[in-house]
Amino acid sequence: MIKRNFYKLLVLLLFLIGVKQNTFGQTLTVPNYTACPCQTITASATWNNVSNITYSLWAPPATTAGPPSATWGNNNSFPIFNCSAIPASFTYTLVGTGSTLSGPVTNTATFILTIAPPAPMTLTNNQFHCNGSNITITAPIGGSSYNYSGAGTPGSSSSNVIVLTNAQANWGPQVTVTSVINGCTVTGQANISVAPLLQITINPAINVCQGQNANLSSNLPGGQNYQWYDNYNTVIPGATLPTYTINNTTVNSAGSYSVHIDQPFNGIFCPYGATTQVNVVATNPVVPAASPGNIVCQGTNLNLSASAGGASAWLWNGPGFTSSIANPVISPALTTASGVYTVKASFTNGFLTCNTTETISIQVIGVSSPVITMPSSICQGANFVVNGSASSNPNSYSWSGPLFSGTTATTGSTIPIYSVEPNASGTQFLTVYFGSLNCPSTSSVQLNVIPVTTVSVIPPGQVCSPNNAFLQALATGANQYIWVGPNSYTVPTQNGAAWVYYPTSTANGIYTVTAYFGGGSNLVCSSSNTVQLTVNAPLNFSLVPRNQVCYNTPVTISGPPGATSYSWTSSTGFTSSNKDITFTSVQPNNSGTYTLTVYLGPCKTIGESELVVLDPITFTLTPFDRTICRGDTIHVEGGVTGGSQNYAYVWNPSIYLESSTGQQQQGVPLGTLDYNLLVHDIACPNYTIAHNFKVNVLQPPQPNLELSVGAAGCEPLVQLYNPKTGPEAFVTTYDFGGNLVKQGTPTLTMSLNAGTYTLTVTSTGTNGCSGKYVFPYPITVYPKPGTDVSWSPETPTTNDEVIFYPTSRTEPMSYYNWNFLGGITPGDTNMVNTPGLSDTTNVKNPSRIYQNYGIYPVVLISTNEFGCTDTVSKFVKIIDELQLYVPNSFTPNDDGINDLFMAKGTGIKLENFSMDIFTRAGTNVFTTKDINEGWNGKLGGQFMKDAVYIYRIRAVGMNGEGRREITGYFSLIK
Fold first, then answer.
1. Best CA proximity match to 612, nearest among 555, 542, 695, 668
2. What share of the chain is helix, strand, coil (3-state, %, to 5)?
3. Measured between alpha carbons, how far apart are the two ends of the chain, in Å?
4. 271-307 tens-digit pLDDT
5. Bridging pattern class, strands 673-681 and 755-757
6. pLDDT in tens, 715-741
7. Which CATH number is correct for 201-281, 1.10.340.30, 3.30.450.20, 2.40.10.10, 2.60.40.10?
8. How do 268-281 and 206-209 pair as beta strands?
9. What are phi and psi of 253, to 5 degrees?
10. CB of 511 within 8 A of CB of 484?
11. Which of 136, 401, 717, 723 has the smallest number of CB atoms closer than 10 Å to its CB?
């Protein structure tokens, strides 16, 4: 209530202000409006003779008119909407400010917005529907789209006629439709009811044999008006019951049969239908037959056959016979096969099998095989007699074969043969005939008439050394050949072919071949022939394998002299028949492999030469201009590609650089310079390219060092370092090398330990450049010699010459003074060094021999070149001599050489020796404590495989000293 009163007071105040300032009758007016809930309307204001207008709209509580107190500027139209759900009127206030000729003006107008909800939408539709049918709902026209829900999937339609497809039993009971008509949202509801989906039953697919009946049945609870349709979808007259029978089926009865049924639902009939399949297995009479007939000869094939269209399986049964194929074969037919045979044909569609049967009678006439008597092998021209016989009283005899060709007397059991010829060789046949069908029975034998034929020789043709020469001879019927020729050439062969391998001119001459014929050990025949062999020598040559040349230069590739013909080819497509090929000015596209084929008479030789033409060079990397401080190191590098890949780099001028040549340079320029880089292709001196660059050098402060003591002294060396730099240097750094770096201001007092120091003084100026001064001499702090003594061998024995070596931290040494006790100089036959007495020497590397084991003192006094001395004392321990030799392989193959793996040595105490041998897997395969016993490579009497093995040897010197254990590898190689 307080807010409502405040709102009224505010409106009254604004109205009074508007009245006061509305001096010329400029009245602000807004008409009243009517709208549906949440419908946006456009309010229009009229305010004549006023410009620069700004509007503010004041909406009543619980309404919406754009943002509260929204400002629209001088636009006279603005949107308003109100979502009141019940009919009501709302008062809005519009306040306007603007300008007139008399000055600023303010005015206020009120208007009423009436909210009038529309009447519900009226829908037209049928309430009851069958499952799966379409539902049509008609709504009032005027909407741009109609949204629906409540049945199936919600959707939208642009038409006022809404169609819901494929109605389902779970739809309903209402469909809600919403649309916007005349700016108002209107909603309506339609009642619907969908019949339940019932299950119709029908018999499954029926399979029957042709001629049988097929019984069809169906059922739908409460169903009416049954009607059956045949396999052509035609109404079957009188078939109006749930069951239907197809009598005496034929193949045309097969197909799809359907039944249609009506189901009543609230005054409508909903159609139902179902389909089943009738499959008729077609059958046909089976017709049996026999080939060559119902009566056959023994030993022939009896071919039974049966035909029945569409049969899928067969079964024959007869005397001792059965088969599951339509056309079986009895092979061979015996007399026991005579009798009656029954055949059954089966027909199926995969679900049902139907059968038909028939019989046939068979008779088999018995026969026996004849016996032929004749020799198996005969010489050409011989006479002999052929005899035949057979049991069972055959009707007749008939002879055939190469032996009887052209002979009229080929009947009877005995046939004489005169002067047989080679063409009579082959298979000879005797056929005898039995019974009413003259059933034949045939036997055969092989006759071999050994011919003697002329040997044919194929000339070997042109042969070029060292190609093999091929000799070939042929004699029909020959079973062995022998070739003989120059140089004791003898080659036996079975096929008449022979080779003369790698022949030279010494193989030239006559070659004779002899062919041998024979069918057994009692007859051997032969014939001979000759042939001339000539071997030609080729022209052997070689070309320069690779020619690398510069482009635009002349090139000649020369062939060998003396050839009959020349032929050049190339990977570039080049060809020539000249001896030599010449290019007056080669180009990179001439690069390739050139092949020369030459003939000397019939002999061909081939050689190759590669021609590589270098292309011009170009820069891939060039130095750039730069600005540095004097003393800075510059690194410059050039890169080139192309040509021979072998280049010469020339830097000009070379001042401040390491060298005038080379791909990479570094230097310390002391002043600004212009440099020029020239690059030459070494293989092609005329290929030269150049590049210029500039180095600008800024000058830093230049220190000049002064030392208070000098550059050398003994440790510790203490002195004052003064760089003598001017006021332009504000930081001075002293680098003595390594990690020893100090800063001074600018002088420095420093104490140095023993060593050699390279001093660099760096002064950094105001221009950012640092000047460096490298003291030209090393600052040397001399240490004491730091002498030590060593000897060789490190573990000397009584049989060793011990050589002593002095070592010092500083070199060279100027003087050595050795003092020994208990040793003698090698070769000292006069015993100048008396054992047990001290002796001295000044040589650098003295040697001594100690004849008895023990510990002996050695003293060395050394003096270095600076006069510093050191004294070192050590003791040498001398042990007994002990030396071992172990091989790295052995060959246990029982050849008497290196058959045993064993160690050898001197100074070894035999009772303390042992040797073990292991595989690399660690398995012990041999152990001995006798140095004279070796391993023969066997384990358990069997040789071990070739491999690498490990040995471990333990030994002790003769006097119990010098204990050693040696482990190593060796190879077993059989």
1. 555
2. 5, 50, 45
3. 123
4. 999 999 999 999 999 999 999 999 998 888 999 999 9
5. unpaired
6. 778 888 888 887 777 788 889 988 899
7. 2.60.40.10
8. parallel
9. -80, -10
10. yes
11. 136
